[in-house]
Amino acid sequence: MAHHTFWQSHPHPPTQRPDMEEAGMMRPVFRIQDLILGLSLMALACLPLALSEIVRDAGVSLLLPLTLIGAGLAWLLAGWGVRRLFSGIVLLILGPLTLVVRIGQMGDAVFEFIRQSFVLFPAFFNRVFYETPSDVSLFLSSRETLLQKALAFSGRISLWFTGIFRGVQIEDPVIRTLIWCLALWLIAVWAGWQIYRNKKFMLGMLPSTVMLAFVLDYTGKEKEILWLHLALLLFLYGLTNYHHLQKHWDTSHTDYADSTSIDTLVIVSALTLVLVSASFLVSTFSIKDILDDFREKRAGSNESQAESLGLESVKDNFRVTGFGNGLPRSYLLKAGPEISTQLAMTISTGDLPPMSRNAHPNVPRYYWRTLTYSIYTGAGWTNPPVESEDIPAGQAVIEETDPSYRIVNANVTFPKDTSERLYWTGSLVRADVPFTAAWTRKTENASLLDTDMLAAFAPVESYTAESVLLNVSAQELRDSPSVYPSWVRNRFLALPDSVPERVLALARDLTASEPNAYDRALAIQNYLREFPYTLDISTPPAGRDVTDYFIFDLKQGYCDYYATSMAVLARAAGLPARLVVGYANGSYDLERAQYIVTENYAHSWVEIYFAGIGWVEFEPTASEPVIFYEEENNSDPTTAETLTEEISFNNVFSSLLQNTVQKAWFPVVVVIVLGLAWIGVDTLRIKRIPPAQTIQILYKRLRRLARPVTGYASRNQTAHFYALNLNRRLSEIKASPRLTKWIMPSRSEIDQLTELFSRSLFAPLAPSRAEAEQAIKAWSSLKWRLALANLLSLRKRRK
Q1: What is the pLDDT of residues 744-764, one digit of tens each?
Q2: What number of other Cβ atoms are within 10 A of residue 71's Cβ?
């Protein structure tokens, strides 16, 4: 097999000092083409490294391998001499399609569908020839699963681009990650192809340089990696020019010193250092201020589009600290608390009258909240500064709510000590005692959807609080768009840079195939509820992110760990979330018609913001019942398995055929992808086997494909006689002048392939690689001409 260097083999091997090189007395210290390859990959790697520090959803473990694989695959296809068409299909269709399957978490569904497709074919033939009953339920189920995931993912893509075109920011980290991955893939394959195939280094690296400069300029991040990228480009530019010159010297048999490579390396390094240093100093004193002014002028126009891609100007980052007005300074996660059955409070809501102990009513379930947290620190939760407001007794703190909200009047009594904070369920409207409200956001109209009250303070022994609860269905939550007010995005999607990449990747993978925000929240909640509940845990190690520690190491815990992990995963998945602390429902005293809340009911849970609806409660803790939001449509869809049990095989097959026609795009895509994959593998195999074997395989394919035209030929028939007979049969086929003209060149192609086949068998010298390439080129056109001739001959027979 021929050896390919980075720039392809020399047309004529160098002849200088052959005896000394063969004796091993003179070896190059390094290969310039290998150095160019390595440094080119380093220059390309600067872009994914920068993006992983800027775009929260795009981790280096995903972007860096993606970039290197894209560039490497383009180099391999270019180096192997694969045709441009097939290379384009692999790099521009199969590559992006693979990214969609990977990021959309559709790999298992695709694999299962392909596996069931292969199982279906023999089952069908057994049914046709042996009348053996066949079960297609698994195939139907796998097809529907894949279609549902594909349609859900395509819907999210469509929604995201609609938001981009309309200037509306759609929070979808999965689609944002896909866009960046596709951009990096295209940049990488462009660089690999241009550098190796077209020998255009600067043109190949231009997109990555422009993208890197734009991203760093817009976000205002430190530009050290850009200077590293530029330094590598300058260094590589000098090396590639020297390498071209060296090839010219070798071709023209011009002698040069053995130390030229080392001298060139030193000179290019020095020039690169000088030029980059000078550019850095110049930009520090002059260009930086100009760029800042330019960025301020354009900030408003492209803000929503940039934020949709995860790019955020450094001046807009939400970073607040400090507390006041008696709020707890922090909420740190630690070892399991001590269980106490001391009475905390009793609450009467008037929902049910007093009744006998033997009664079994449907007791409403509530969460008694007292405080919310919005800033995650990695070790726990804190809150931003608040605005205090004294609220008189009976005065409403929010405007009139929608009639669909349910009003709850809770009479709260603290049996022993005076409480400093109020407790309520849902959203507090008013209390019959004066209290101090702690606001992080309050508007003039005090809208429920546009305010954020952290807590309410009042030294009381008892009080009555009026609050409102959401009365929302699961379908309404599913219909809520992922478009949030800026104050919600800035505060309740923020995560510290210390959150490990694998936590962000887990959130992306858990929610990738879910079509809407509600189902994404359920996917995270259901994942966490698989973890065992226990209070017997130790304090997290110092410096460890508690979410990462709970999910990947501890894998068990109590409510604080569940709620914190869900809030963090929800934010990473683009769902605004906050932590709420207070008490769970408590036990219900039927005779007194009140909730008995003891200290062991102390609890924390999660609220997620839904556009147009407000904050919705979720329960990720495994020891607590799931919060259920009623489905408007309670009818269960009929499964494919049930259909198969009720109808015969013929009906199943007819239904399958009808559904396939209705949704024919997907099977067609699968067949095309598999066909192209087979063609690609076969092409690479043909190119890599010995030339004689290549020619003989192609000739056998010629005989096999031409069988409908010639019929079965005798094995004793010589290759040239067979070619003569085939050409005669082709000339007898009657067709339109256009088709006849297209088939006509097959005569010369058949003769060429026949001659090469004969020489591969009888010539004293084995065929060369160039002759094998001639055979491949002839066969690439001849097979399509023979396929057309077969169709025309079959039509003639039918007539």
Answers
A1: 888 888 888 888 888 888 888
A2: 27
Query: How buried is residue 729: exposed, middle or buried, by Cβ count under 10 Å (0-12/13-18/19+)?
Result: middle
Non-local CB neighbours of 31 within 8 Å, separated by 6+ positions: 5
**Exposed/middle/buried for 746, CB within 10 Å: 0-12, 13-18, 19+?**
buried
How far apart are alpha carbons 512 and 173 in whole angstroms?
A: 9
Which pair of structure tokens corresponds to residue 557? 């815990």
Looking at residue 783, its pLDDT comes to 85
pLDDT of 528 reads 96
Tell me which residue of 378, 673, 757, 431 sits closest to 543, measured CA to CA.
Answer: 378
CA 380 from centre of chain? 28
**Helix/strand/coil for 487:** helix
Q: How far apart are CA 254 and CA 742, in angstroms?
A: 49
Q: Give the residue among 323, 347, 321 at the shortest CA–CA distance from 582.
A: 347
Q: How many CA atoms lie within 13 A of 14 on its CB side?
A: 17
Taking a C-beta distance cutoff of 8 angstroms, is the pair 176, 308 a contact?
yes
What is the distance between the alpha carbons of residues 67 and 60, in angstroms, rounded to a whole number? Answer: 10
b/e 514-539 (16+ beta carbons within 10 angstroms → b): bbbbbbbbbbbbebbbebeeeeebee
Query: Starting at the edge strand that comes first in sequence, how are the strands of the sheet with 435-441 ordered?
Result: 387-391, 435-441, 452-460, 419-421
Q: What is the pLDDT of residues 567-618, one digit of tens each?
A: 999 999 999 999 999 999 999 999 999 999 998 899 999 999 999 899 999 9
